[in-house]
């Protein structure tokens, strides 16, 4: 079973505003509400690709109930912990002349809520995959991811981490199966700007030396680079298409990589291409990638 953990799920309020002006009343020309949060997006795409998963994490208030409800409509199983104080957040994603995001804070998670999550994680086996992704509410310490990796280490399950800077750096010593920074996040870690696939490779190698097994560096429209567990380097451009909604493209890539890896008897090149096409299929549609969209893009990449 694949488990995803989302510390701070959201309702993503996706809007378009023509020529957005600050300090003025702006009207939307398009609006849509989707369940969001990185682990939740991974769970939705896994379900679209035909893989079962269980979404874990913390929910609060009416927004939390709505996220759960909408997630169930996507055919996903979940087992969220209900938090007493605050509300699950609403994240605004606005497309205008530029893309702007305003992400909420989320509810207050107490120590006993974390303990409940740990109890759930104690049930995992070495056949399971655990995906932990996204930011943590600011009331939690930046050792949160590290605490989870330490806890599940004796179990021997594969762990995937998609998080930024400190959260990510602190888990490398636990040898996560997969990490997926984008090129900006990777550059930020080392205080450099990485704009080409060739520039990314030496820095991804550094994260591998620090312990990560597979490092997938996403680069939006420029494709991606993978340093795999066998020490091989894979590079690819992204498929061509019109970007409609790129929210969740990175999460879709994680789901696609896992799906490809599991279906192909651990063929990392196949997993890499499925990951890329999954990310692009999400970017090229209003919703997250469907199986048909992903395979259609994979066909275009064979040329
Ligand atoms: N503009 C685009 N054109 C084609 N493919 C794209 C585009 N944006 C994203 N993708 C696909 O999705 C993958 C992941 O995208 P990206 O690098 O933006 O991830 P991310 O920064 O983690 O995104 P997010 O945080 O929005 O989920 C890319 O490697 C690529 O395959
Ligand atoms: O604050 P985080 O957890 O880093 O990011 C949250 C978020 O922006 O990430 C997803 C896209 O990857 C969205 O569904 C969600 O709103």
UniProtKB/TrEMBL annotation:
Which pathway or pathways does this protein act in? Carbohydrate metabolism; D-tagatose 6-phosphate degradation; D-glyceraldehyde 3-phosphate and glycerone phosphate from D-tagatose 6-phosphate: step 1/2
Q: Which CDD domains match?
A: FruK_PfkB_like
Give the matching Gene3D superfamilies.
Answer: 3.40.1190.20
Q: Which InterPro entries match?
A: 1-PFruKinase, Carboh/pur_kinase_PfkB_CS, PfkB_dom, Ribokinase-like, Tagatose/fructose_Pkinase
List the EC numbers from the record: 2.7.1.144
What molecular function does GO assign, one term?
1-phosphofructokinase activity
**A Pfam family annotated for this UniProt entry:** PfkB
**Sorted alphabetically, which SUPFAM superfamilies does this protein's record hold?**
Ribokinase-like
User: Which segments constitute the Carbohydrate kinase PfkB domain?
Assistant: 7-289
Record carries keyword tRNA-binding: no
What is catalysed by this protein?
D-tagatofuranose 6-phosphate + ATP = D-tagatofuranose 1,6-bisphosphate + ADP + H(+); beta-D-fructose 1-phosphate + ATP = beta-D-fructose 1,6-bisphosphate + ADP + H(+)
What keywords would UniProt list here? ATP-binding, Kinase, Lactose metabolism, Nucleotide-binding, Transferase
Q: What does this protein do?
A: Catalyzes the ATP-dependent phosphorylation of fructose-l-phosphate to fructose-l,6-bisphosphate.
Q: Which family does it belong to?
A: Belongs to the carbohydrate kinase pfkB family.
Give the NCBIfam families listed for this entry. 1-PFK, pfkB
Name listed for the protein in its UniProt record:
Tagatose-6-phosphate kinase
Q: Source gene?
A: pfkB
